[in-house]
């Protein structure tokens, strides 16, 4: 890598105020040593001296990400932009190129970052005072205080609080963009993006679940660097997506997480479970988890996805499976449904050559791409002529909390901790002061959610077997599931026991 001149740009763009030089672009107070580095860099920049900087690690998120007060999430990865424009929305911002220092620019600055030959080059008013605008490996932009950064790419426009860090994917040439943002700001956006239902307590439950899922991901290096802003992790659309309700949900549960045996849980959830929650091992490889056991869910009946039908042409489905697995599929054998109603395996057969067994989740990913009405692995199937006819229940993987079920419980008067009681039995609600250790990694290559309730287009034995629909649940039984809580107070923090 080429060494670059020292470049950090700190800009005031508050309308009607004179421009000023800010400290280093950090989210915390600047130390004495950092202040000395800043002064040395400023002298070097004004005198034309060149100071070599250590080349940052390529494609890595901000190092400050380990602070429990922030979440680091890779944004816009599904759009794979080669360039972006970024500016402040009536707020002071700081720009750092290759983690070094430079001079302030005029108010109202706009910066364009463009990938070129494995590096980045800068243009726009934000780059006017930079000596070196090319061959950059890292660019960091911070909105000071409660400021907002506006990002525009070829396909969309988004706004974010906190810090944006940009590098380049050396293989693909696309920009890799991370947002480092305060936890509750992130949670408010996720609740608004993932939970499009109008109730307060369900939104609070969603906030606790989203926070737990994100905090767990941040404590593991592998999952932290691959934590995304879409359904592969959790849907996060930034500042402008937040609503009054989502902010109330985040602030009203601030810092609260769910734990099991003193560790953060795998806080997975989906849009709708079809009346029966799924066991984690029915969907992903791994050992059974005590708080992710199948159970009848009468509250999910409110979901518009509680029952569905889908038809797929055999030839079209066989062709898609053949292309994906490099074989010539001529027939399918569906494994028997598990106790939770899910199809765990599908066997692909061909006239010549070995057969291949795939997971029900992998089958759904391909079949659902051909017909979005195939919404889960909770189905029974029949062959009718040249078609497969599916009759199914639920939307998404069905493990953990059902968003529609949470909504149903809220409409019946349940509070958010009652909702968490029901969907994660045997766990505890942890109030802030410290964050529990990371629970054992299940190695699940998937996001927390299976589908967004506000968006429709979001997830053996021989022959075809079926499972009976969940039995009808009486109101007496529903009341009997209310659960009991005990409160344990400790010196460091408080836990509320969830489950029974």
Summarize the SSE layout with pairings.
Elements (H helix, E strand, L loop, with lengths): L6 E5 L20 H16 L22 E6 L7 E6 L4 E5 L12 E7 L2 E5 L15 E5 L4 E5 L4 E5 L1 E6 L6 E8 H12 L5 H19 L2 H5 L18 H9 L4 E4 L2 E2 L4 E2 L9 H4 L24 E6 H12 L5 E4 L10 E5 L6 E4 H11 L8 E6 L2 E6 L8 E2 H9 L4 H8 L4 E3 L6 E2 L36 H6 L6 E3 L4 E4 L3
Parallel strand pairs: 13-23, 14-21
Antiparallel strand pairs: 1-4, 2-11, 3-5, 3-8, 4-7, 5-6, 7-10, 8-9, 10-11, 12-13, 12-22, 15-20, 16-17, 17-18, 19-20, 22-25, 24-25
Helix pairs in contact: 2-3, 2-5, 3-5, 3-9, 3-10, 7-8
Notes on the structure:
With 500 residues, this protein is an alpha+beta fold. It folds into 3 domains: 7-173, no CATH class; 184-303 and 397-497, no CATH class; 308-392, no CATH class. The chain contains 11 helices and 25 strands. The protein has helices at 32-47, 183-194, 200-218, 221-225, 244-252, 280-283, 314-325, 360-370, 403-411, 416-423, 475-480; strands at 7-11, 70-75, 83-88, 93-97, 110-116, 119-123, 139-143, 148-152, 157-161, 163-168, 175-182, 257-260, 263-264, 269-270, 308-313, 331-334, 345-349, 356-359, 379-384, 387-392, 401-402, 428-430, 437-438, 487-489, 494-497. The strands form 6 sheets. It has a 6-stranded antiparallel beta sheet. Helix 3 (200-218) packs across helix 5 (244-252), helix 3 packs across helix 10 (416-423) and helix 7 (314-325) crosses helix 8 (360-370). The chain is globular, with a radius of gyration of 25 Å. Mean pLDDT is 77; it is low at 1-58, 102-107, 434-446 and 450-500.
């Amino acid at each position: 890598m080429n060494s670059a001149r020292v470049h950090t740009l700190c800009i005031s763009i508050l309308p009607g105020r004179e421009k000023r030089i800010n400290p280093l672009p950090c989210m915390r107070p600047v130390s004495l040593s950092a202040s000395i580095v800043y002064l040395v860099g400023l002298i070097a920049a004004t005198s034309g001296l060149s100071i070599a900087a250590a080349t940052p690690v390529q494609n890595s998120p901000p190092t400050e990400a380990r602070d429990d007060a922030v979440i680091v999430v890779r944004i816009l990865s599904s759009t794979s932009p080669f360039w972006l424009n970024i500016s402040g929305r009536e707020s002071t911002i700081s720009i750092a190129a290759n983690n070094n220092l430079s001079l302030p620019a005029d108010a109202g600055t706009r910066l364009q970052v463009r990938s070129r030959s494995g590096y980045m080059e800068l243009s726009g008013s934000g780059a006017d005072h930079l000596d070196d605008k090319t061959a950059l490996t890292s660019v960091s932009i911070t909105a000071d205080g409660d400021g907002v950064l506006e990002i525009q790419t070829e396909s969309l426009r988004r706004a974010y609080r906190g810090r944006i860090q940009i590098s380049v994917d050396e293989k693909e040439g696309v920009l890799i963009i991370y947002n480092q943002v305060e936890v509750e700001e992130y949670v408010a956006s996720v609740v608004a993006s993932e939970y499009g239902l109008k109730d307060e307590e369900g939104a609070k439950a969603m906030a606790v679940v989203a926070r737990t899922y994100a905090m767990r991901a941040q404590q593991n290096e592998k999952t932290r660097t691959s934590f995304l802003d879409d359904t592969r992790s959790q849907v996060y659309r930034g500042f402008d997506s937040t609503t009054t309700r989502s902010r109330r949900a985040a602030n009203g549960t601030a810092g609260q997480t769910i734990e099991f045996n003193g560790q953060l849980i795998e806080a997975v959830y989906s849009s709708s479970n079809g009346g029966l929650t799924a066991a984690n091992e029915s969907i992903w490889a791994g050992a059974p988890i005590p708080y992710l056991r199948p159970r009848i869910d009468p509250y999910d009946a409110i979901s518009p996805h509680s029952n569905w039908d889908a038809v797929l042409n055999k030839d079209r489905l066989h062709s898609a499976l053949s292309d994906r697995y490099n074989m010539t599929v001529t027939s399918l054998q569906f494994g028997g449904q598990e106790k939770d109603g899910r199809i765990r395996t599908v066997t692909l057969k061909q006239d010549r050559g070995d057969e291949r067994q795939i997971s029900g989740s992998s089958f759904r990913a391909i079949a659902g791409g051909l017909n979005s009405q195939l919404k889960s692995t909770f189905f029974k199937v029949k062959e009718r002529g040249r078609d497969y006819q599916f009759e199914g229940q639920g939307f998404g993987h069905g493990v953990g909390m059902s968003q529609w079920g949470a909504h149903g419980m809220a409409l019946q008067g349940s509070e958010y901790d009652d909702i968490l009681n029901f969907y994660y039995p045997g766990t505890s609600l942890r109030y802030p002061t410290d964050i529990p250790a990371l629970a054992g990694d299940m190695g699940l290559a998937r996001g927390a959610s299976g589908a967004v309730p506000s968006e429709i287009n979001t997830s053996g034995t021989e022959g075809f077997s079926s499972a009976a629909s969940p039995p009808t649940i009486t109101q007496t039984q529903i009341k009997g599931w209310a659960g009991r809580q005990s409160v344990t107070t400790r010196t460091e923090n408080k836990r509320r026991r969830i489950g029974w």
